[in-house]
Amino acid sequence: MGFDGRRVVITAAGRDFGRTLAVRLAELGAEVFLSARTLAAAERVRDEIRGLGHERVHAFACDLTDPASIRDFAAGVARQTDRIDVLINNGSRYLHGPDLLSASDADVVDTLASGATGTVLTVKNFLPLLLNSEQPDVVTMVSACGTGGHHRSDAHDAFYAAKSAQAGFTEILSKRLRPQGVRVISLYPPDFDNPDPLSEEWETTPREAGSALTAQSLVECVLFAVAQPRDCFIKAFHFEQV
């Protein structure tokens, strides 16, 4: 499926799965507006993608714990385009540690701010650009940790709290934005393998019934949902954990 003409915003695209999304969507023809916590990290991915021959990619700094930084990111994108077709909320700080006492207060605040407050404010600030699109979609990488009853991750309690907040936000957002034609799509993956999208491993990583979930499959879920006719609102993808 091609993404020619689609304009896509991706948060936290300086590394890991955000970078994977940016690379793959650019390869499919999307114009990509990517952010990272530092401009240098975003520019590294931008330059990497441009080196592959995809020129329509733009880099921005965005600290999801800082409301002013989120506003500046949205304003910077708005200076370059009058619409956004897909907003991908990928950013959320991961915090390890099954012991509540293992994290500092600052780490807890940072984790909740990036995953919960950051997601709400990103959607809020990009909503005017989304509403200018004829095919607006909001995609949020939540986590199995945002699913009620899930307890199999070694993530810290604060990460569980942030993901639960994301899940509650996207649930109500889906209902309230549907009358305006905005589809809200959430993914709830467990831990997954993320091979380099530019490596041979991307094509050779096993994807069989007994294999761990892969970034390739998550990308394909996003592409599938966004490609559906506009009367098809796929609200969420939930995954069995091996």
What value does the Rg take, in angstroms? 17 Å
What is the CATH architecture annotation? Answer: 3-Layer(aba) Sandwich
- Fourth-level CATH superfamily: NAD(P)-binding Rossmann-like Domain
Give the CA-based shape: globular
End-to-end CA span: 29 Å
Low-confidence segments, given as residue ranges, are: none
Average of pLDDT = 95
Strand order of the largest sheet: 3-2-1-4-5-6-7
CATH class: Alpha Beta
Tally of extended strands? 7
What is the helix content?
Answer: 40-55%
Explain this structure to me?
- The protein has 242 residues and is of the alpha/beta class.
- It has a single domain, classed as NAD(P)-binding Rossmann-like Domain (Rossmann fold), CATH 3.40.50.
- It contains seven helices and seven strands.
- Strands 3-2-1-4-5-6-7 form a seven-stranded parallel beta sheet, sandwiched between helices.
- β1, α1 and β2 form a beta-alpha-beta unit.
- α3 runs parallel beside α4.
- The longest helix has 27 residues.
- It is globular.
- The model has no long low-confidence stretch (mean pLDDT 95).
